Amino acid sequence: MPQEVGDARRYAPATGRNRGPIGDLLLPLLPACGLVLEVASGSGEHVVHFAKAAPHLVWQPSDASPEARASIAAWIALEGLGNVRAPLALDASRDDWPIAAADAMMCVNMIHISPWGATEGLMRGAARLLPPGGVLFVYGPFRREGVVTAPSNEAFDAELRRQDPRWGLRYLEAVEACAGTNGLKLETVAELPANNLALVFRKAAAV
Ligand SMILES: C[S@@+](CC[C@H](N)C(=O)[O-])C[C@H]1O[C@@H](n2cnc3c(N)ncnc32)[C@H](O)[C@@H]1O
User: Fold this and answer.
1) Which of 4, 10, 144, 171 has its Cα between 20 and 30 A from that of 190?
2) 15 pocket-lining for ligand 1 (C-beta < 6 Å)
3) Which residues of 116-139 are buried (b: 16+ CB within 10 A; e: fewer)?
4) Domain residue spans of the chain
């Protein structure tokens, strides 16, 4: 392995803890064949894990950050996976995504660590790219109307807002409404460990 490949790899310890619960929900939802687009792949550890778990699918990682894309590329090279494409420079908040279609999409832990415009762009992108009936899988910490937010999530929210006032935990209801305006229906809300939620949105079937 060339040294520079290993040097670019990043490690996100949470991916080792959450990939099991995420995979349990995500993998059965995926189509029998086709391409899965991951928005905000970060280190790339998730995409290589899920690509190994579902080798019949083509996996397309992406991230807005060049450092993240270098890490993703390094993980792909290290794992020697033939079913993962090179990472795309994709800013969810923009409408000029460098990909025109995906059979399914996933986005883990981006919505609270980005301005709200990234969530709006994610939903617009899912509406553009997914086929009728296609799934967008989202994971992360959220607030819910009428539900007391866990103290650990309140502290996390305060820390995020200190880093960037545009960041912070979003209300599930606001994310659902944003999805709805783009023709995506919230089909499943699953409570996962460490006060995180998995959300399954489905694009309306063609009529
Ligand atoms: C907390 S990390 C999560 C990464 C990975 N999904 C995971 O679970 O480990 C958030 C990622 O979102 C990316 N990100 C933030 N804003 C974005 C945007 N507008 N479009 C695409 N990616 C974005 C960051 O570059 C970062 O890699």
Assistant:
1) 10
2) yes
3) bebbbbbbbbbbebbeeebbbbbb
4) 3-203
pLDDT for the residue numbered 189: 98
* CA pair distance 28, 133, nearest whole angstrom: 15
Pocket test for ligand 1, best of 11, 39, 113, 163 (most atoms within 8 A of CB): 113
Please indicate whether residue 111, judged by its CB atom, sits closer than 6 Å to ligand 1: no
For ligand 1, atom 9: residue with the closest CA? 42
In whole angstroms, give the CA distance from residue 126 to residue 133: 11
Q: Whose CA is nearest to atom 25 of ligand 1?
A: 65
Q: What is the mean pLDDT of each run of 10 residues along the chain (207 residues)?
A: 60 94 98 98 97 98 98 95 97 98 98 98 98 98 96 97 98 98 98 97 87
- Per DSSP bridges, beta strands 170-171 and 62-63 are unpaired
Task: Give the Cβ contact number of residue 58 at 10 Å.
Answer: 18
Q: What angle do CA 62, 23, 48 make, to 5 degrees?
A: 40
Tell the CATH superfamily of the 3-203 domain: Vaccinia Virus protein VP39 (3.40.50.150)
* pTM over cut 0.85: yes
Amino acid at residue number 126: A
Whose C-alpha lies nearest to ligand 1, atom 22? 40
Is 114 touching ligand 1 by the criterion CB < 6 Å?
A: yes
What is the model's pLDDT at position 4?
45
